[in-house]
Amino acid sequence: MPCRTTLELNSTAIGGGKTLRERILLLPEDYLGSVQKITRRLWVHEPGAIVPRMVTYVPGLYRIFDEMLVYATDNKQRDPSMDSLRVEVDVVRCNISIYYNGEGIPMELDQKEGLYAS
C-alpha cells in the first residue's frame, strides 16, 4: 500500500462530507500548525533594545498573525498610496486588529464553503 500524507489520512478519517470550515475546526494542525503552547527563547523588542527572552506562544496563532501582516504588506505593492499600517492587540477582549489605509484585498464569498477567499 502506498504511503499517504497526514492530510490524506486525516481527510479519510473525517469523511468527505465536511465543509472546509468544519475540517479546519476539527484538525487545525493540518492548516495552520500546532495549537499547543510552546516556550522558546526569542529576541523581543523592549524599550530601547532588542533582547533575548523566554516566550510562550501558540505557533498556529503566530501563523495567523503573520498571514494578516503579509496580506497588509502585500497591499503596499498593489497600492503605493498606502502609508499607514497599525497593529492593535487587545488581550482583554482577545482581539487582534490590523489596519492599513490602502485598498482592501478583493474577497469573494465561496457559497459552498461559506468562507471568504481572495
UniProtKB/TrEMBL annotation:
Might you give the EC number(s) for this enzyme?
A: 5.6.2.2
The record lists the organism as Miscanthus lutarioriparius
Cofactor requirements of the protein:
Mg(2+)
**What catalytic activity does the UniProt entry give for this protein?**
ATP-dependent breakage, passage and rejoining of double-stranded DNA
- Looking at the keywords, is Isomerase present? yes
Q: Where is it found, in Gene Ontology cellular component terms?
A: nucleus
Check the record and name the Gene3D superfamilies matching this protein. Histidine kinase-like ATPase, C-terminal domain
| Keyword line | DNA-binding, Isomerase, Topoisomerase
Q: What is this protein called?
A: DNA topoisomerase (ATP-hydrolyzing)
The organism's lineage is: Eukaryota, Viridiplantae, Streptophyta, Embryophyta, Tracheophyta
InterPro entries in alphabetical order: DNA_Topoisomerase_II (IPR050634), HATPase_C_sf (IPR036890)
Does Secreted show up as a keyword for this record? no
Question: Do you know which SUPFAM superfamilies this protein is assigned to?
Answer: ATPase domain of HSP90 chaperone/DNA topoisomerase II/histidine kinase
Gene Ontology MF terms in the entry: DNA binding; DNA topoisomerase type II (double strand cut, ATP-hydrolyzing) activity
Q: How does it assemble?
A: Homodimer.
Which GO terms are recorded in the biological process aspect for this UniProt protein? Answer: resolution of meiotic recombination intermediates; sister chromatid segregation
